[in-house]
Amino acid sequence: MTQFDYTGVAGLYSGKSLRGSRAPRYRRFETAAEALRFAVENMPRAQHMGSLLEVDEARFDRRQIRVSIGAEY
What we know:
The chain has two helices and four strands; from the N terminus they run E-E-H-E-E-H. It is α+β, with helices and mostly antiparallel strands.
């Protein structure tokens, strides 16, 4: 598995919520650490399924994001 570069610029694509939320589907962050924090602390749980993190052209799905932070996501 590709290693995370926590300092690299990151894009976070959130999954669709079941209710059809109008929340932004893509956000860009200065660092991957900020993107991970947002995903865990601020993103609605319904959007976790199908979310994707892109760091330096490497893509990480929901399962890989969870492993990278070592916590329940």
